[in-house]
Amino acid sequence: MNTRTGWKAPFFTIWTGQAFSLIGSRAAQFALVWWLTKLTGSATVLAMASMAALLPEIFLGPIAGALVDRWNRRIVMIVADGCIALASLWLAYLFWTGHMQVWHVYVIMVVRSVGGGFHWTAMQASTSLMVPEKYLTRVAGLNQMVNGVLNIVSPPLGALLMGVLPLHSVMLVDVGTALGAIVPLLLVHVPQPGRALLAAESAVKPTIWADVRQGLRYIWSWPGLVTLIGAALIFKFALTPAFSLVPLLVSEHFHGEAAQLSLLESVTGVGIVAGGIVLSTWGGFRRRIYTTIMGLIILGLAFVVLGLAPAGLFWVALASMFVGGLMIPLIDGPLMAILQGTVAPEV
After folding, report:
1. CA distance 254 to 115
2. Of 44, 222, 242, 264, which has fewest CB within 10 angstroms of its CB?
3. Distance CA 242, CA 276 (A)
4. Does the CA dihedral 187-193-194-196 come out positive or negative?
5. What is the pLDDT of residues 17-43, one digit of tens each?
6. CA dist., res. 303 & res. 320, Å (int)
7. Residue ranges of E strands in the chain
């Protein structure tokens, strides 16, 4: 267990930089998704863009974890953020020169997903070393709350930027805020875990695939962990593509524009903030998994209502998304705290 008393300053220095970066990323993402929606009006295009962002995280996750365990986690986050910034710079160039095409979005999504996969693997693993175990659930709730604030601020900001700036300048905003995430990482020490005992005593360093196999054996030997990760995978795999179709729901079913989409996403953010506040103050049930299960049930009911909302009752969609946002921290926060608090840091 992490017992350090001076953990807050270094952790929240990095944390603040990441939050700053996400503002630009979310605003640019909103502009990009609305550009796709108006250009193509295709559910297939939006779903493919979503899958391009999702699949690399799934397939690279175990490899990224093994590499992060070998590499300096601070450097991993710096390089990952730098690659994402370069991808956004390329996107700005394409919009500026008028050469932007739909397939470029897929490439950008893959690059962002790979970079984000390495970044968040390193960040989540480092959190369990920087933050004392008893504060992990509260930090997870705070993360969800800030995520909600970003969901409130970023869509209107994206819509505003689209109204006053050309799209290439909107992408440059993302590049600038990415630098805001890199600078704190240059100044703060990120602790490294000790290698597993077997690796430390071995004269020959294990291969990456050996690390992957070791991680899979670690998971497979723990039936509860297998069930937990499997359920989370199914939940995320089902929910992410569905969320990608929300712009079409606004545009085609409710006949809305960017303002209505930004309002829907902002209301979701309000719900996430409220859920983050509830989780960070309450802490959830004593058995964390009960909080996650409760959140999943209510979230499912909220999306049933969203799917049945008539075209003339946009407020029903707003209410449904608020409830859905409220439940997201209650699902993700305890789940992440369980993983961070039980899985050995070197694994």
Report:
1. 35
2. 44
3. 23
4. negative
5. 888 888 888 888 888 888 888 888 888
6. 7
7. none
What confidence tens digit (pLDDT) does each residue in 182-237 have? 888 888 877 776 555 435 544 455 676 777 777 788 888 888 888 888 887 787 77
In-domain check, residue 3: no
Q: Is residue 271 part of a domain?
A: yes
pLDDT in tens, 47-75: 888 888 778 877 776 677 778 777 888 88
CB-based contact 290:236 (threshold 8 Å): no
Report CA-CA distances (Å) from 124 to 129, 139, 310.
Answer: 9, 11, 40
How many domains does the chain contain in total?
Answer: 1
Does residue 132 lie in a domain region? yes
Amino acid, res. 93: Y
Domain of residue 314: give its range: 8-342
The tokens for 323 are 């409830």
Q: Could you tell me if residue 295 is inside a domain?
A: yes
Token code pair at residue 298: 């209510």
CATH number of the CATH domain containing 206 = 1.20.1250.20
| Sequence-separated (6 or more) residues with CB below 8 Å from residue 335 | 228, 232, 288, 292
Which tokens belong to 76?
A: 């991993």
CA 110, CA 52: separation in Å to the nearest integer? 5
DSSP assignment letter at 189: -
What gap in Å lies between CA 171 and CA 276, rounded to an integer?
29
The percent helix, strand, coil of the chain (3-state, each to 5) is 85, 0, 15
Q: Given the structure tokens 């969203």, which residue do they identify?
A: 306
Task: Determine which helix (DSSP H) or strand (DSSP E) holds 210, and give its type and residue range.
Answer: helix 208-220
What was the pLDDT predicted at 198? 38
Count the Cβ atoms, other than its own, within 10 Å of residue 80: 25
Find all residues with CB under 8 Å of 57, minimum gap 6, and list them: 113, 116, 117
